[in-house]
Amino acid sequence: MGELRRIFEALGFKDVETFIASGNVVFTSRAAPSPAMQRRIEDRLRTKLGYEVSTFIRTEAEVAAVSRYRPFEDLRMRTAGSLNVGFLAEPLSPAAVRALMALKSDIDDFHLNGREVYWICKKRQGESKMSNAVLEKALNVRSTFRGVKTVSRLAARYCGDRS
User: In this structure, how many other beta carbons lie within 10 angstroms of the beta carbon of residue 10?
Assistant: First the structure.
């Protein structure tokens, strides 16, 4: 995580921190998040690390909103084996939305809100056929998933969100 922090600092970002060894990087920038900023980060990561790394930039307000969002009824969320949020670079096309909903199964369900896909699994994730790779292939998009608890901890620490 130290190398990741140094890469972001070399890009000119300030107050760079990594959050729980999960690839989450928190930083401040005078520039607003943009596709160009995302590409610049990805290019530097590829150069420094030697492999492709997809990035998904969210503002503090966006992280807080994701943390507060309730994609499924409370009982389902409390009794789920796992609840994850998938971050996308942009909203899904209508065809990709149909492909996402085709991935539903007896144990997996999905909800889409803007650039986030919420995935609830009735059982443990290991019992599901769903994965980030399955989603990316079916939808022809890049994504990264985080547990909702991780997103809530991130929001609580950096966004003042105590939900």
Answer: 11
